Every structure is written in structure tokens, then in C-alpha cells.
Amino acid sequence: MNTELWKAQLDHVDEKHELAHKRLRVELTEMETHLTGLAASVAQLRINAESPVDAGRIAVPFRLVLLIIGAVVTIIGTVYASTSSIHVQMQSVADQLRSQQEVEQERSVTVKETLQDVQRKQTMQELEIQEVKEMILKGRR
User: Fold this and answer.
1) Percent of the chain with pLDDT over 70
2) What CA–CA distances, in Å, run from 132 to 28, 65, 135, 138?
3) Rounded to whole angstroms, how far apart are CA atoms 64 and 73?
4) What pLDDT digit, counting tens, does each position of 60-90 carry?
5) CA–CA distance from 16 to each of 4, 27, 37, 64 (Å)?
6) In 10 A of CB 23, how many CB atoms?
7) Cα–Cα distances in angstroms (integers) from residue 91 to residues 27, 55, 65, 100, in the given order
8) SS3 sequence, the chain?
């Protein structure tokens, strides 16, 4: 009875071994197929890499061309607008500087005229004081 049990166990292990062996063979066959496909892909990539690119065969979609043109026009417009804005701002600053210079010149002229008026008044007062002194001195004699 012990022998029959051993024989049954041995048959069971043998079946497992056979099934595992079949699975390994199937996996090996699949890997060989996969490896053959990879080798073919590598060979095709090498052929593609070695062959020169024909510029005449390059096709650019119309939408891509429109996108590129739109981007270029947008960039040019932005640059023009910013430089135009800067030009206007610089012109505005220059106008403000000119007007400030004019105001400063007017102030300078006004200050000079006021100073001349003050000097005239001072001279007049000095003359009046001199006359008063002379009158006082004549009156004492």
C-alpha cells in the first residue's frame, strides 16, 4: 500500500513536471517570436536611419502652416505695438521736459524782472534817504 501511494505521488509530480515543461516551451516559443519581431524592427530602424530624408516627401499640414503664420504675425504685432507704445511714451516724456524747461525759463525771467524791480526800488530808497539826509544837514546849518 505504501508503494501505491508513492507511485500516485510520483505520477502526480510527473504530471506537474510535464505541465511546467509545456508552459516553458510555450513561453520560449513566444519569446523567440517576440525576439524575431524585435530584430526585424531594429533592422528596419537601421535602414530608415541610413536612408537620407527626401525633402520633397515632407508634407506640412495646412493647419500647422496657419499656426506658424499666426504666431509670427502675433509676435511681429506685439513687437510693433510695444515699440510704438515706447515711442509714444518717449515723445510724451520729451514734451513734458520741453514744457518744464519753458516754465523754468518763464520763472527765471520773472525772478530776474522781480530782482531788477527790487534793485530799482532799493536804489530809489537810497536816493530818497540821501535826499532826506541832505535836507536834514541843510536844515541844521
Assistant:
1) 96
2) 136, 99, 5, 10
3) 14
4) 888 988 999 999 999 998 888 878 777 778 8
5) 18, 16, 32, 61
6) 10
7) 81, 50, 39, 14
8) CHHHHHHHHHHHHHHHHHHHHHHHHHHHHHHHHHHHHHHHHHHHHHHHHHCCCCHHHCCCCHHHHHHHHHHHHHHHHHHHHHHHHHHHHHHHHHHHHHHHHHHHHHHHHHHHHHHHHHHHHHHHHHHHHHHHHHHHHHHHC
User: Residue 135 is placed in which grid cell?
Assistant: 535836507
Q: How far apart are CA 65 and CA 58, in angstroms?
A: 13
Does the predicted model carry a pTM greater than 0.85?
no
Residue whose grid cell is 499666426: 70
| Length of the chain counted residue by residue | 141
